[in-house]
Design a protein that fits this description.
about 50% helix, about 20% strand, alpha+beta, 4-stranded antiparallel β-sheet, binds adenosine-3',5'-cyclic-monophosphate, single chain, 5-stranded antiparallel β-sheet, about 475 residues
Length: about 475
C-alpha cells in the first residue's frame, strides 16, 4: 500500500480533539451562557455527545499518528517497504473498537458493562462460529499480506496440475487470479494458506520448462544431445543464459527418453515458447533424419536403426527442402551428386562479407547466424539459418561479393554446390531461378531495413520489382533464355 500523508495532516484531528476537550471542560460555562441548567436534560445529553465526539477525535488522532510515524516511517521505511492495506485497516478498526468499548464502560455501571460484555461475548461466539470460514480467510489474508508468498502480477498454480493464473487482486477474503484463457478464479485466502501452491514468478520470474522426447535406442546419445540442443538454441525468446540442456531421464524397451530443458523468461510466454521449442525440436530431428521412437515390429525397427545411425544423404536432405520441390527427380539427383560435404566448428565463419561468392550452401545440421553491418558500421544480426536452410544464393545469382557473414553458432554440417554445377539445372528449371530470385529480393529488403536499425515496416513494398531485377541479372549470368 502506498500511504501518502504529509505531516501536517495530523493537525485537523489534534485541533478537533483540543476543541472538544476545551468544550467539555467549559461545558458548565457554555450552558450558563446559553441560560440552560447544567443538570437539565439538554445539558446532560449535550455533554454526552461532546464526550462521544471527543473519544472518536482521540481515536482519529491515534490512527493518524500511527499512519505517519509507524506505517509510513518506522514500518514502511519512508515508502521503501510495502505496507499491507489490510493491516493498516485492521489496526485502525481496533483503535476505534477500543474507543467504543471505553465509552460503553464509562457510560454504564461496571456490572452492566460486564454483563453487556458477557452478552456480547456470547453473541461474538455465535457469530464467530457462523462466520468461521470467512474469519479464517480474513486472517489468512493478513498472513498473505505480511509473508507475501505471492504478489500482484505473479503466476500461481493453486492445486497441483490445476489451473495457473496471474494474481490480479488480493482482498481481505480472496485472491483473484486470471488464467491465460481469460477466466477469473476467486480463491479464498484460507485455502491458499492451508494448501501447497506453486509460484512461477518466485524467487525470479524465469523458470525452467522441459519437453520429453522418446528417441530410438540406436541413436547415439551424443548425436541426440547435439541435434536437440541445436534446436533449442534456435528458438527466439528462450533464454540462453542459463543455457538450455538435454538430459536422458529414462530408458524404455523401444526408446531412450530425453528431456529438452529450457528457460522461459515469464510464465505468460510459456505456451508460445513451448510451441516454438517443440516445432524447432521436430524440425531439427526431421532434417537430421531422426524419427521419434515407436513400438514397431522387429523388421521395421532394424530398418529404422540403420537409417538413424547416420546422417541423411544429400539426396534425402534435398528432397525435404520445399524450394527444390519444383525440380524433377533427375534434377535433384544431379544436384545431390554435386554437393560437397563441409563441417565446421562453433564460431567459424562459413562465408565472410566481401569474399567472392560462387557457391550455394544447404545446412543439414546445426545452427547458423547471418550477421551484417548497420549504416553506422555496427554489427547487426540479420537472421538465423536452421537445418534445411539455403544460403549463399545472393552472390551466386548476382555475381557480387558475399553480402554478409554467416557464422556457426553450433557445430554444423553443410553441403556446398558450385555455381557451375547449378547453371544447367537453372537453365532447365526457370521456376527454381524465380524462387531463388524472390528469396534474394526478400533478404535484400530485410537487410536494408536492418541496416537502419529501425523496426521493419508492415509491408515489403518493392519486393516484386526487385525480384524481376534480380531475375534479369541471373538470366544474363547463367545465360537463361526464358
Ligand atoms: P551471399 O551474399 O552469397 O553470402 C551471405 C549470405 O547470407 C547471403 O548470400 C544470403 O544467402 C544470406 N543472407 C543475407 N541476408 C540474409 C537474411 N536477411 N536472411 C537470411 N539469409 C541472409
Amino acid at each position: 500500500m502506498n500511504l501518502r500523508l504529509s505531516h501536517w495532516q495530523v493537525l485537523p484531528p489534534i485541533v478537533a480533539f483540543a476543541a472538544l476537550f476545551a468544550l467539555l471542560m467549559k461545558w458548565r460555562d457554555v450552558l450558563a451562557s446559553l441560560g440552560l441548567p447544567p443538570e437539565g436534560r439538554v445539558g446532560m445529553l449535550g455533554r454526552d455527545l461532546v464526550a462521544v465526539l471527543l473519544w472518536f477525535a482521540g481515536a482519529w488522532v491515534v490512527t493518524r499518528l500511527l499512519t505517519i510515524i509507524f506505517w509510513q516511517g518506522i514500518f514502511g521505511q519512508g515508502g521503501r517497504r510495502h505496507v499491507p492495506r489490510l493491516l493498516v485497516d485492521l489496526v485502525a478498526a481496533l483503535v476505534y473498537a477500543i474507543a467504543i468499548l471505553s465509552l460503553i464502560s464509562l457510560w454504564f455501571e461496571f456490572e452492566i458493562a460486564t454483563s453487556a460484555l458477557t452478552t456480547s461475548g456470547i453473541l461474538v461466539a455465535v457469530l464467530g462460529f457462523a462466520l468461521r470460514d470467512t474469519i479464517a480467510d480474513i486472517f489468512s489474508g493478513i498472513t498473505v499480506n505480511l509473508e507475501r508468498p505471492y504478489r500482484i502480477g505473479d503466476w500461481i498454480e493453486v492445486t497441483p496440475g490445476g489451473r495457473v493464473g496471474e494474481v490480479v487482486e488480493i482482498s481481505w477474503r480472496t485472491t483473484r487470479l486470471v488464467t491465460q484463457d481469460n477466466i477469473s478464479i476467486m480463491v479464498p485466502n484460507g485455502l491458499l494458506s492451508r494448501t501447497q501452491f506453486a509460484n512461477f514468478s518466485l524467487p525470479e520470474r524465469h523458470f525452467r520448462e522441459a519437453v520429453r522426447l522418446r528417441l530410438p535406442p540406436a541413436l547415439s546419445p551424443e548425436r541426440a544431445r547435439q541435434v536437440l540442443s541445436n534446436a533449442l538454441k534456435g528458438v527466439s525468446g528462450v533464454l540462453q543464459s542459463p543455457p538450455p540442456e538435454v538430459r536422458i531421464v529414462d530408458i524404455e524397451r523401444h526408446a531412450v527418453v530425453y528431456e529438452a530443458r529450457f528457460w522461459v523468461p515469464d510464465y505468460r510466454q510459456l505456451t508460445q515458447l513451448r510451441d516454438a521449442a517443440i516445432t524447432s525440436l521436430l524440425e531439427h530431428l526431421d532434417k537430421a533424419g531422426i524419427a521419434l521412437a515407436q513400438e514397431r515390429r522387429e523388421i521395421t525397427v532394424r530398418r529404422a536403426e540403420t537409417r538413424m545411425s547416420r546422417h541423411l544423404t544429400p539426396l534425402e536432405l534435398l528432397r525435404r527442402i520445399e524450394m527444390f520441390d519444383v525440380l524433377a527427380e533427375e534434377d535433384v539427383a544431379e544436384l545431390s551428386r554435386n554437393l560437397v560435404e563441409r563441417r565446421f566448428a562453433p564460431g567459424h565463419a562459413v562465408v565472410r562479407s566481401g569474399d567472392p561468392g560462387g557457391s550455394l550452401f544447404v545446412l543439414a545440421e546445426g545452427l547458423l547466424e547471418v550477421e551484417g553491418k548497420s549504416a553506422e558500421g555496427r554489427k547487426v544480426r540479420l537472421a538465423r539459418i536452421e537445418p534445411g536452410g539455403v544460403f549463399g544464393e545472393m552472390s551466386l545469382l548476382t555475381g557480387q561479393p558475399r553480402s554478409a557473414d554467416v557464422v556457426c553458432l553450433t557445430e554444423a554440417l553443410l553441403y556446398e554446390v558450385d555455381g557451375a554445377a547449378l547453371g544447367p539445372i537453372l537453365q532447365r528449371r526457370p521456376e527454381l531461378a524465380l524462387l531463388l530470385s524472390a528469396k534474394v529480393a526478400r533478404r535484400v529488403g530485410r537487410n536494408e531495413v536492418a541496416a537502419t536499425e529501425q523496426p521493419p515496416p508492415a509491408t515489403a513494398a518493392g519486393e516484386t520489382g526487385l525480384t524481376s531485377q534480380i531475375l534479369a541479372r541471373l538470366r544474363a549470368l547463367f545465360h537463361l533464355d526464358r
